[in-house]
Structure formats: structure tokens, C-alpha cells
């Protein structure tokens, strides 16, 4: 009952509501400039080895809950589009129940959620006043790709104005937390040593034409390994990207994602060009 009441009270918040010294210290003006001009920025060693170990222990607990309320569940796309299993997390629990209250660990995943939610304020500060007007969603997504999965996540954009990011997916981007995505932030919670043979790469097709859904027109293709503690931020509406499936025998690939939103009342049409 308490979890349901808390969920009802959650609202999309202005970026300043989640401002934190931890998030603010991660982002420099150079990062903000690279995001604006190139479309993607990568920041390494955001989490320590100890923090990643604590996250791994909590993720193992989340996986143990999969047979009942609170664990990883199926995603909303067809199996030939993506193979990951997901759980939606708030800093206090998840949409499936009081997940965080069930965990016996150090609440490291909770701190990672707060770190990502704090990036909106950090990016606004780094870019300078008036550049961006961002809002923070109520939840983040923790995804799990198993080693040897038949498919990762085929090329897509996280938001296309006016409809679904995949034309054959029935326009499932309906609410603001999906339809108003402007910046995608991903924090990898894997081991720090992630060799190339593990696969699981995030492949970004930079400069691809808006109508291109496969990456054929990309001016640059960037492969980003999901090493633990790595933070990736890119333009949700612009950057075509895919996830390469982890190789057979590779450890599970874990990524925590938060989509920063555009304030609909803002007169700034940033990042849509």
C-alpha cells in the first residue's frame, strides 16, 4: 500500500530538483560541448570498483526476485527486435513493488539511479545558463542482456517526434517519459575489464540521415564497450544506435538508463535540429 501511494505521488521534476555534487562533478563544459556538436559523450570511471561490486551484489538479488514481484521482466518489443530483460527503478522502489526495500545490500543501485537523475542539472550548469531546459523522469531502466543472446537491440533512436521510434512497434511511446526524451544517459554496471571478445557493444551511427534506420548514411560509426563505471550520454532524437548481443560465454551485460526530458513549456527547441 505504501509503495502504491509513493508511486502515485511521483512526478516528473525539473532538473534542479535532483542536483547533486556527485553528478555535477562528472560533467565539464567540454563534455557539454561535445554532446552538442558530436551528439555523444563518454565519461569513464564514474563508479569505483567497490561501488560496482556492491551494484553487482544487488543486481544478483534483483535477479533472484524474477520469479515473483520485483524482478527482471520482459521488455515491450518483439523478440527479433531486442533480447534484454528489464526492471524499472525509482530511487525508493520500482513500478513492480517495493524492490529497494527488499534488497539487503548497500543501496548502491539506488545511488546510481540518483547519479543519473542528477545529470540534467549538471549538464545545464556545464553548458551555461539558458542552453538547455531539462526535466527528470520518475524512473530509470536496468537492463540485462544474457551472453549468447540471439539478438541484441536492433538499430533505433530513443525518440522520434510525433510517434514511435520504430514504425512497426505500434507507437508505444505514448507518455511524456517516453515521448519527450531528449538525452539518453547510460551507466554500465558490469565488470571494469570488459574485453572485446565479450561483445555487447553500443554502436552509434553518428550523422545518419533522419530517415535512415540502419546506419547506411552515417558519417561515423562509434563502438562503445560496456565496461563497468562507463557513462554514455547522447541525443535521444538524433543518434541512431544499436546494442550488439553479448557473445556466448560472456557475463551478463547490465546497463542502467535514464532519459532526460525536454520541458514542454520551454521555448527552446534544443537538440531537435
**What structural class do you assign from the helix and strand content?**
alpha+beta
Question: CATH homologous superfamily - what is it?
Answer: q2cbj1_9rhob like domain
| Rg calculated over all Cα atoms | 18 Å
Total helical elements: 8
Strand content: 15-25%
Structure summary, number of beta strands: 13
Largest sheet: 9 strands, antiparallel
Mean pLDDT: 85
**Would you tell me which CATH topology applies?**
Jelly Rolls
Considering DSSP H and I runs of 4 or more, what fraction of the residues is helical? 10-25%
How would you portray this structure in words?
The protein has 273 residues and is α+β, with helices and mostly antiparallel strands. The protein has a single domain (2-258), classed as Sandwich (Jelly Rolls), CATH 2.60.120.620. It contains 8 helices and 13 strands. It has helices at residues 2-9, 21-24, 29-38, 49-64, 99-102, 108-117, 119-127, 176-179, and strands at 13-14, 40-43, 73-74, 85-89, 134-136, 140-145, 153-156, 181-188, 202-206, 220-224, 231-235, 240-243, 253-262. The strands form 2 sheets. Strands 1, 2, 3, 4, 5, 6, 8, 11 and 13 form a 9-stranded antiparallel beta sheet that branches. A 4-stranded antiparallel beta sheet has the order 7-12-9-10, with no helix packed on it. α3 packs across α7 (119-127). The longest helix is centred in the first third of the chain and has 16 residues, at 49-64. The protein is globular. The model is unreliable at 1-7, 162-173 and 267-273 (pLDDT under 50).
Amino acid at each position: 500500500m505504501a509503495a502504491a501511494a509513493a508511486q502515485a505521488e511521483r512526478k516528473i521534476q525539473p532538473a534542479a530538483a535532483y542536483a547533486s555534487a556527485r553528478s555535477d562533478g562528472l560533467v565539464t563544459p567540454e563534455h557539454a560541448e561535445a554532446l552538442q556538436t558530436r551528439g555523444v559523450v563518454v565519461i569513464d570511471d564514474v563508479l569505483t570498483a567497490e561501488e560496482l561490486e556492491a551494484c553487482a551484489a544487488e543486481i544478483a538479488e534483483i535477479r533472484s526476485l524474477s520469479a515473483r514481484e520485483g524482478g527482471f521482466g520482459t521488455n515491450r518489443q518483439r523478440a527479433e527486435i531486442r533480447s534484454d530483460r528489464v526492471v524499472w527503478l525509482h530511487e525508493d522502489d520500482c513500478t513492480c513493488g517495493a524492490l529497494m526495500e527488499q534488497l539487503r545490500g548497500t543501496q548502491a543501485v539506488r545511488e546510481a539511479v540518483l547519479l543519473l537523475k542528477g545529470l540534467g542539472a549538471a549538464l545545464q550548469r556545464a553548458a551555461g545558463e539558458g542552453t538547455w531546459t531539462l526535466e527528470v523522469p520518475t524512473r530509470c531502466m536496468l537492463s540485462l542482456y544474457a551472453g549468447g543472446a540471439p539478438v541484441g537491440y536492433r538499430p533505433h533512436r530513443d525518440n522520434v517526434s510525433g510517434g514511435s521510434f520504430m514504425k512497426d512497434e505500434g507507437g508505444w511511446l505514448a507518455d511524456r517519459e517516453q515521448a519527450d526524451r531528449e538525452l539518453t544517459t547510460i551507466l554500465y554496471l558490469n565488470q571494469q575489464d570488459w574485453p572485446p571478445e565479450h561483445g555487447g557493444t553500443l554502436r552509434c551511427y553518428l550523422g545518419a540521415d533522419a530517415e535512415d534506420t540502419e546506419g547506411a548514411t552515417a558519417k561515423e560509426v562509434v563502438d562503445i564497450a560496456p565496461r563497468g563505471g562507463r557513462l554514455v550520454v547522447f541525443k535521444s532524437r538524433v543518434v541512431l544506435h544499436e546494442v550488439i548481443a553479448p557473445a556466448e560465454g560472456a557475463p551478463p551485460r547490465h546497463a542502467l538508463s535514464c532519459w532526460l526530458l525536454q520541458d514542454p513549456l520551454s521555448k527552446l527547441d534544443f537538440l531537435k535540429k
